[in-house]
Amino acid sequence: MSSTTGEPKLLLPFLRPFYNIVEPLSWLIVRVAAGLTLAVHGWGKIARGPAIAAKAVGERGFEPALMWTYVLIGIEFVGGICIALGLLTRFFAPAAAIQMLIITMIYWGNGFSWLNRGYEFTLLWGAIFLAIALRGPGPYSLDRKIGWTL
Question: What's this model's pTM, rounded to 2 decimal places?
Answer without folding.
Answer: 0.89
